[in-house]
Amino acid sequence: MSEEPEVLIRIEGAVGRITLNRPKALHALTTNMCRLITDALTTWVDNPIVKLVLLDHAGERGFCAGGDIRMLADSGAKDGAEAREFFHTEYRLNHLLFHYPKHIIAVMDGVTMGGGVGLSRPCRFRIATERTTFAMPETGIGLFPDVGGGWYLPRMPDHIGLWLALTGARIKAADCELLGVATDYIESKDIERFKAGVIAEPAAMETLLTEMEADPGRPAVAQHQDEINRIFGQDSVEAIVAELERADTDWSREQLKVLATKSPQTLKVAFRQLKLGGQAKSFAENMAMEYRIGARVVQRHDFLEGVRAVIVEKDNAPRWDPPTLEGVTEAMLDEIFAPLPSAEEWTPLP
Ligand code: QUE
To answer: 176 and 220 in contact (C-beta within 8 Å)?
Structure first.
């Protein structure tokens, strides 16, 4: 490993501190980072000194851009074992956070996408600032909105979660509060003072939050909420596209343009994932489903091609296969969602 640890772990006063520290990659998560965070949280469950946990990031460039996509693609091009190990470890962490018995505060002062959403969304307090940008952009690289997207996105109002999943739309703090992605809004100039206050007096954390709470402005999504509800409430991706064509507004034409750049396979995977996740009885059941999908999708053409086009060569001209929604059959989706051999299924931490 390098001399600088990828995650900084320490206890300050009564606060367990976890600071993402891979700034050159916008703190994109590695298997090692997920293990370090999991080990710290596991130890702190039984440590009476730790009253609450603060999860943040080093530097100014955002909270967490996602996962270590190049590693996933390199592994997917071979036997996929390293990619499966990553998903298994990351989803166990997502699940640990979901059921964690102590309050965790996530400070999302910047880009919060993909894997970063999986870390912050299960936390009890999720602080956005004017620099927060949230997105689940995976359909653009032939991946799917994992890390619990199947659980959280279909539980947002008015099918807005499906709109986020399919289009990869980026939203700001006011929308994050509207959709429950963030619980609180603080200006980034106050973040250091907030953290210092929490560490000095953890019991006064909620009072401090109320004092510092600022106004994020009007949520942009609200302007299109009725349209999203009607159009993204359709019962297939093809029907959504047809409804967008029928609407024929500036906004609907923009959505069609965006959807045309995404992997048709992944659009249908995400649609089915959110339907199943919306009916899942537990977060663990949803994560087991996502693990099945992840294990398959990293080895398929669209993911390798998406990473080539968007992340590695950056020509932004992926050649998806199949190239159209019609080409993505139910049989293909059945294969991607099929149970794994029982010894290979995802399970939560023991
Ligand atoms: C979709 C994704 C990711 C992405 C772009 C997508 C993702 C991810 C990164 C990323 C961004 C900046 C970095 C980095 C990774 O980009 O998951 O290392 O410096 O981590 O369209 O899912």
So the answer is: no
Write down the architecture of domain 7-344 according to CATH.
Alpha-Beta Complex (3.90)
67 flagged as catalytic:
yes
Mutate to test the pocket of ligand 1, among 113, 133, 304 (most ligand atoms within 8 A of CB): 113
Identity of residue 68: D
Asked if 198 and 56 count as a contact pair (C-beta separation under 8 A), the reply is no
Please give the model's pTM, rounded to 2 decimal places. Answer: 0.97
Residue pLDDT, tens place only, 114-143: 999 999 999 999 999 999 999 999 999 999
User: Domains of the chain: which residue ranges?
Assistant: 7-344
Residue 156 and residue 166: Cα distance in Å, rounded? 14
Task: Say if residue 215 is exposed, middle or buried (CB neighbours under 10 Å; 0-12, 13-18, 19+).
Answer: exposed
Amino acid letter for position 336: I
Q: Give per-residue pLDDT as tens, 76-127.
A: 999 999 999 999 999 999 999 999 999 999 999 999 999 999 999 999 999 9
* Nearest-CA residue for atom 3 of ligand 1: 66
| Residue 107 β-bridge partners | 127
Furthest-apart CA atoms within the chain: distance in Å: 59
